[in-house]
Amino acid sequence: MVQVEREENAAFLKKSITHLEAHGFEKIRADLEGYDIPKSYLKKGSDTKITPDIVATKNGKKYYFEISLKSNRPLLLKSKWLFLDTLSRMKSNHFKIITTKGHYKFTDNMLEDINLSDKTPIKI
Fold first, then answer.
1. Phi, psi of 9 (to 5 degrees)
2. What is the DSSP code (8-state) at residue 36?
3. How buried is 115 (Cβ within 10 angstroms: 0-12 exposed, 13-18 middle, 19+ buried)?
4. C-alpha closest to that of 66 among 109, 104, 30
């Protein structure tokens, strides 16, 4: 999700973290009280910072998680997802999308638009 919308969707972020903890993920980092903040990346040529919603490890592998909720800024969201997908492939990590009821169609359309339709969102 986009940084501006993070405060509005803190409850779903917390619910996603609980889901990940129940599935064996450790060393969870998120921009939420009680957790360490994930590393941010600065977009070259602008002042835009890209921060994954959740970063966690499982079985020694690092996972980047993005929360997919309907957004007023789909272009920014698409560029963030493309960047995180590329970053995860470069470093042999994993990139996953988390979504919820009412946002499935939006998520599928976004993934199709940026040719990441091979990704299957985690539905909570």
1. -110, 25
2. B
3. exposed
4. 30
